[in-house]
Amino acid sequence: MAAASAAVRMLPDGGADDEERWLAEGIAGVQQNAFYMHRALDSNNLKDALKYSAQMLSELRTSRLSPHKYYELYMRAFDEMRKLEMFFREETRRGSCSVVDLYELVQHAGNVLPRLYLLCTVGSVYIKSKEAPAKDVLKDLVEMCRGIQHPLRGLFLRSYLSQISRDKLPDIGSEYEGDAESINDAVEFVLQNFIEMNKLWVRMQHQGPVREKEKRGKERNELRDLVGKNLHVLSQIEGVDLDMYKETVLPRILEQVVNCKDDLAQFYLMDCIIQVFPDEYHLQTLETLLSAFPQLQPSVDIKTVLSQLMDRLSNYAASSPEVLSEFLQVEAFAKFSNAIGKVIEAQPDMPVVGAVTLYVSLLTFTLRVHPDRLDYVDQVLGACVKKLSGKAKLEDSRATKQIVALLSAPLEKYSNIVTALELSNYPRVMDYLDNATTKVMAVVIIQSIMKNTTCISTSDKIEALFDLIKGLIKDMDGAQDDELDEEDFKEEQNSVARLIHMLYNDDHEEMLKILCTVQKHILLGGPKRLTFTVPSLVFSALKLVRRLQGQDGDVTGEDVPATPKKIFQILHQTIEALSCVPSPELALRLYLQCAEAANDCDLEPVAYEFFTQAFILYEEEIADSKAQITAIHLIIGTLQRMNIFGVENRDTLTHKTTGYSAKLLKKPDQCRAVYACSHLFWTDDQDGIMDGER
């Protein structure tokens, strides 16, 4: 009757309501037979106890339930089987029944599935009694379980076997330990059960209609821990030392993982291996473990698993300084780098984002384990460039995000852009970013410099730096100015201006080279940028002028010492570019600043030339009346502070200024300006002018 009842339930699946009904029927069957089983146990009626337990276990023969519902039914039966096991143990202890006879007796159950559950239960008692070696009983059980080949029923049966045997393995130090070879038997039992469970788990994917493939994938995912816990049991066996793991355990597991050719199983089991076995074992078997990755299915998310492995090992490296020598000894970086190359080569259709993500993980590993090896860092960047070669600028936002992570990692680790500038492949990776992201990365670089107050002190380094931030200092190919938000543009250019102030070298000659390098780059920036960047360059140059006060000499040619005259030549060229923007008011202010600096250096002709340029700008470029008023007062104030001019030059400049003042549009403005000019004819300094008549 029980067999017929179970057979009726082996019909095609129905809806969710039907499944709930079938589960309720199954649970009712388990409870009913469990009730009669308990009554038989209480009256020590072994025959009836076996009869009703077999009928109870027949409920597990159903094919109608989803894995989730089947698990509920299984747990009801499992709880009852624990009570039956305790009864068997008590019976054999009292001598009412021999455990060997019991082991034979349960094999007469009518159906295979109940028979095997009962056999595993008695087998647990058999091992506990020590009347037979544990390894023989376990070997017998694991072989007998081959009788169930239905994926779902077979998985839960083997899970039951794993559950009742985990504390009875002939492990080192265990009460069931036999001879020297017994540890091999324990490992072999767990491995064999694992392999068979994985085969059943994989087979689930290929049963049923194609349209339900996704549903089966989700159901299988719910069952993954049944398979994975075998690996956890293996990791807990005391006798599995590094040698056994290297020679037997890992190769057998990887063989099964690779051969199953199932993406879900491969991803989960590789992740399990990484999580359950010790870091030291991974490090010492790195080559074997990594050799499996290129053989996995193309659809397996290898980057996630490899990233977890590298993350675990980098944490292991950080745990103790002594461990680092092991990483060098096994050449961990070279092995990871080689494995990633092979994975990418084995999967030509791998998206760019997948490959770049692998390199981000490798770079993170390298920076944590070998922070002093810049050649390793550059090698990772170079490998990424090789993968990207032949491709246009990245358009995939996810790949772009990973490239930014790749480029940001060295900045965060070294807190010093100078270190990143030594990486030859760093700018080559940046070349693959689109224009917008190139600017974002340039801002990140500048922010890093500001945050760490990094001083970049050689023209070569600055040349490399400006190559990295070129997205901010000049228009990129294909960039559209009207696409840029005005506020963002101002913020970007202000960050470049702040950067220029960070460039410094105590050596005057090198500082002059730095200024020339900066000038070369910013003059290519176009009219919109010059108003932000030129003032910073001018004031940086004037700082150097003040350091050089007193040094003079005629300047000819390019290769000359750093002198104020040389610097003023550079400043003249730079401000002249600004006056053509046009931004005449700013240019005029800068000319006057330079004139005042030339005054402090006793360079009368230079100061006069700057004033001349300021007057030309005033006459030709400044037409707005308010701007004229501001400009004339600036000229008057600067001229009043000048004490280097001879009588003739001063008279010329003073008369010019007074003439401009008298020509202002409004009379009140004329009066104020002319009144201010009166101070030019009466100064109180040592060489002061006191021309009361004028």
From TrEMBL:
Q: Where in the cell is it found?
A: Cytoplasm; Endosome membrane; Golgi apparatus, trans-Golgi network membrane; Prevacuolar compartment membrane
Q: How does it sit in the membrane?
A: Peripheral membrane protein
Signal peptide boundaries: none
Which terms are listed as keywords in the entry?
A: Cytoplasm, Endosome, Golgi apparatus, Membrane, Protein transport, Transport
User: Cellular component terms, GO, for this chain's entry?
Assistant: cytosol; endosome membrane; Golgi apparatus; late endosome; retromer, cargo-selective complex
The principal location of this protein is: cytoplasm
Question: What GO terms in the biological process aspect are recorded for it?
Answer: intracellular protein transport; retrograde transport, endosome to Golgi
> What superkingdom heads the lineage?
Eukaryota
Per the entry, what this protein does is:
Plays a role in vesicular protein sorting.
Could you tell me which PANTHER family the record lists for this protein? Answer: VACUOLAR PROTEIN SORTING-ASSOCIATED PROTEIN 35, VACUOLAR SORTING PROTEIN 35
**Which family, according to UniProt?**
Belongs to the VPS35 family.
Name of the featured protein? Vacuolar protein sorting-associated protein 35
Source organism per entry reads Panicum virgatum (Blackwell switchgrass)
